[in-house]
């Protein structure tokens, strides 16, 4: 971290539409605020399991509210999340472990692609409603993000390696250690201590805490 800059870590999983909203807002603000933004791909399933949390959409009233909420936020932040009732079932039935391992592999090897690749996964999953657990779809996402087919193929082979699996597990455990119980989990390191903010609707508060 350069002098005087606040390190802000964003723990996210592409299964989470709120993570996409938080990601895009922080991407915009990283050039306005005095922050070093660090993307930390983690696994939401692992966080849910460790903390006994459940997907919010499993509560019917909350699911009803979430539909409206995400639509409003998508419009306000100009992020193309497309959400309908069917999505809740679709999301519960789709594992993002492979996608998050793929994103972890790019973070370990070519981190400059981390932002565009993560964004492309959200676009394919939340705008185009594709099944991103399928290897051919993962490769298509990688192509859209500007990765060569050689690199994409190499990363796909890496996702079953212990190094990638361990890295994703460690990042997930780190988020839990900071107190995360869902996503996005944003951790600002300010005045020598970590400050956890949950969700994409606490970013004004984050700015206020770090003096922005």
From TrEMBL:
It catalyses: RX + glutathione = an S-substituted glutathione + a halide anion + H(+). Keywords: Transferase. InterPro entries: DSBA-like_thioredoxin_dom, GST_Kappa/NadH, GSTK, HCCAis_GSTk, Thioredoxin-like_sf. Gene3D superfamilies: Glutaredoxin. One of its GO terms (biological process) is glutathione metabolic process. SUPFAM superfamilies: Thioredoxin-like. GO terms for molecular function: glutathione peroxidase activity; glutathione transferase activity. The keyword Transcription does not apply. It comes from the Eukaryota. Belongs to the GST superfamily. Kappa family. This is Glutathione S-transferase kappa 1. It comes from Eudyptes sclateri. The gene is GSTK1.
């Amino acid at each position: 971290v350069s002098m005087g800059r606040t390190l802000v870590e964003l723990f996210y999983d592409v299964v989470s539409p709120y993570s996409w909203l938080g990601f895009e807002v922080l991407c915009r603000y990283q050039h306005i605020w005095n922050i070093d933004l660090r993307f930390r791909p983690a696994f939401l399933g692992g966080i849910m399991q460790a903390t006994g949390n459940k997907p919010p959409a499993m509560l019917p009233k909350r699911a009803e509210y979430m539909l409206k909420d995400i639509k409003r936020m998508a419009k306000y932040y100009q992020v193309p999340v497309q959400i309908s009732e069917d999505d809740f079932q679709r999301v519960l039935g789709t594992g993002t472990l492979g996608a998050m391992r793929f994103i972890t592999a790019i973070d370990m090897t070519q981190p400059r692609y981390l932002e565009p690749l993560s964004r492309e996964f959200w676009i394919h999953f939340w705008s185009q409603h594709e099944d991103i657990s399928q290897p051919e779809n993962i490769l298509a996402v990688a192509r859209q993000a500007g990765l060569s087919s050689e690199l994409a193929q190499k990363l796909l082979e890496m996702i079953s390696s212990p190094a990638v699996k361990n890295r994703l597990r460690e990042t997930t455990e780190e988020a839990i250690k900071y107190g995360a119980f869902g996503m996005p989990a944003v951790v600002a390191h300010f005045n020598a201590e970590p400050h956890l903010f949950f969700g994409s609707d606490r970013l004004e508060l984050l700015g206020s805490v770090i003096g922005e």
